[in-house]
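ok trying again, last paste got cut off:
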Amino acid sequence: MALASYDFLLGLFPLSLLLVHVAARIGQPTHSSARGRQLALLVVSLVFCLAGGAASLVYLVGSSAFTFGLSRVIERASTSQRPTGLLLSLGIGGNLLGLACFKYSTFVSENIELLFDSPIDLPSLALPLGISFITFQQLSYLVDASRGATRDYDWLDYGSFVSFFPKLVAGPLADAKPLIGQLRAPRAAEAKTHDLGLGLTLLVAGLFKKVMIADELGECADPIFAAAASGAPLATADAWFGALAYTLQIYFDFSGYSDMAIGAARTLGVRLPQNFDSPYQAINIADFWRRWHITLGRFLTRQLYTPIATPLTRRAFARGAGGAQIFLTTVAAPTLVTFALAGLWHGAGWTFVCFGLLHGIYLTSQEGWRELRRHWLGKPAPSRVRDLGSWALTFMAVLVAFVFFRAGSVAEALHLLSSMVGLANLQDPGAPSLELLTARRDMLLLLATAPIAWLCPNVAQLLREHGPTLEPARSSTPLGTSWSLMPSPMLALITALVAIASITALGEASGFIYYQF
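nice, full thing came through this time. structure:
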């Protein structure tokens, strides 16, 4: 079930508000009211998962039972000072095996067939809803259990944490302690009113981004990528238009999803971590990844990059390595491995691996340049011109990587990129280029939406005075101004009108891009 759908907005969402409110009233204000609310949230989340298919619910319940049961064994072992490494490895391996079977078995078998020219017949498995994010949440819980941080939690705490429906499909990834603490806590009446108003505002803003902007941009990008997939010659302007349209589409699509997920959770009294912070305003790639899918970046740093980099660094220094060897061993290798796996996590295809490797190369190059500049040039003086150049270079690098992210094959991506620099027709210079860019409306849409991504404050910044997420939002924008929206009848009216317009236009809305991961 998509958050941007009639089934959710007019069905499950209002039902969840009613059910949670009624459950919280039972035994108020005792501990039982909080537990009733928590149980109601679990039931709603399981219904949300069931809407994605019976297989999704079976996988969620089965993998959760396995992980929670093993976490209890790990907790008992850590309490008695027994080693937990083998148990933790079993839990991590079991979850990754489930992810591999459902998400990557076809990809692996296809590549084995190509490599050995031998057909492999594997059954086709339906991809459970949110399997990638469920896996990461369960892995983080197992790590917490090995550190003794989950001893106070029971099955209801764990079940409501893993299955909490606003974040189930595409994040944000949440740590167990802050989320379970909120799910357990009773809510005051005044907090409920504030949370409802703030949550609905976020929900409507995200829906508007998805339906009125992202889906419209998708209609601009799709014909260009379809032409590239067919191998048709593309005009340079068309190729640039398609790449830019998709780069903006995924921005507003993921931004809209993040706002809706955080807003839906907030109406239920839960603050989720910030997951999106105007990444197209970043002035370098590291800054981009501090703003794009923030919680995924944190998870990869803690659970993948650091475990890879730490032993490599120790060995390099123990051998007395220096210079370029230190850089390659302690920075380049773990960064490239981390981002190659991060790309593959997004999807079972070589285009996603290329996407991840490109970002790994970008980050490695940035760090290498920073080291060279520090040793040979010193710290540069602040310069707006240099910052503008860094921003433009960063955005172009991100755009190129997103071409691979969107393309159906590496050949399609290379064809589009070749068209962007005028090289696609070298083999047949006489072939006429397709002129797809004809609608003035499409160009106006790009001209209107690009400055929003590049310059304007995001929704979290506009509502920062009300604390929409666990972390405080930045106060400044590239324009150097501070923005804030305060409750008012006019704001309520505008929000209502935007909600009506977005829901009316919802009919043919596509699913969120990150739902496929």
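cool. The first helix runs from residue 6 to 25. The radius of gyration is 24 Å.
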